[in-house]
Design a protein that fits this description.
alpha+beta, Arc Repressor Mutant, subunit A, Beta-Lactamase, WH-like_DNA-bd_sf, transcription, transcription regulation, Tscrpt_reg_IclR_C
């Protein structure tokens, strides 16, 4: 007699369907809601609900008119993770400090990979931890090129140095766009300095950032600014890795993005 197959619990069934959607997007890179529902055999309402959950956790990004594509965490299931780790390791060797890669998830930055310094004294944020946009170099690297995210944002004050005044933050972001990188001068954690550049995907959108951080007794403005060119090279390399994952880069976006890494003032 054949073994009886148990009906999956609702939570397990939702997980299986979510993974089904993720598998589909890994194969096609991007697709619209109606086609996703047709190709996966899921009701459009169910597909939409699951895609929203995947987006909330950074695995999927939605665009206008029901278009969905892989987010950086979704791309982590492709071959991109190890090459990005290698870029971070090289940046760690160049700087002697911890190199980080984070992605934008809703209105926060989430750490997804890092290469930790060999120094005993270090500041390391756990993978999966999320940090505010307004008081972190990684967050400001996004805000510099997506100022619309500032609308209605609640400015978090983590230290006495955190920028919570919108006018002051806009001025700080203007300077960042002109020099091509952002800094966090003890704004997220006292005694820690951080420098970051944005990372762009194949659509030309800033979706993440790469940074180097260290204790101010060893790593501050002079060291961070001297590292800026190496950091831009790392950001450009990771952006190109995301290009390869996403497929063809949309016309004009590569040049706009590369202007950030090669001394042009703004995109």
């Amino acid at each position: 007699m054949a073994a009886r197959q148990e009906t999956p619990a609702p939570s397990l069934r939702a997980l299986e369907r979510g993974l089904q959607l993720l598998d589909y997007l890994i194969q096609v890179k991007e697709s619209r809601l109606n086609r996703i529902a047709d190709e996966t055999g899921l009701p459009a309402s169910t597909a939409h609900r699951l895609l929203q959950a995947l987006e909330n956790h950074g695995y999927v990004i939605s665009e206008d008119h029901g278009l969905y594509r892989l987010g950086i965490k979704g791309q982590w299931f492709t071959a991109v993770r190890e090459p990005i780790r290698q870029v971070l390791e090289e940046l760690r060797r160049q700087s002697g400090e911890t190199a980080n890669f984070a992605m934008l998830v809703r209105d926060e930055m989430e750490y997804v990979e890092r290469a930790v310094t060999d120094h005993a004294l270090s500041f390391v944020v756990s993978i999966g931890e999320r940090i505010p946009l307004n008081c972190s170099a990684l967050g400001k690297a996004i805000l510099a090129y997506r100022p619309e995210l500032l609308e209605g944002m609640v400015m978090e004050r983590r230290t006495p140095h955190s920028i919570v005044d919108p006018v002051e933050l806009h001025a700080d972001l203007d300077v960042a766009r002109h020099r091509g990188f952002t800094v966090d001068n003890e704004e997220y954690f006292e005694g820690v300095y951080c420098v970051a550049v944005p990372v762009f995907d194949g659509t030309g959108a800033p979706v993440g950032g790469v940074s180097v951080s260290g204790p101010t007794v060893r790593f501050a403005k002079d060291q961070a600014f001297a590292l800026a060119s190496d950091l831009k090279v790392a950001g450009e390399r990771i952006s190109h890795l995301l290009d390869d994952t996403m497929g063809t880069v949309r016309t004009g976006n590569r040049q706009k993005r590369d202007d950030v890494y090669h001394g042009k003032k703004e995109i």
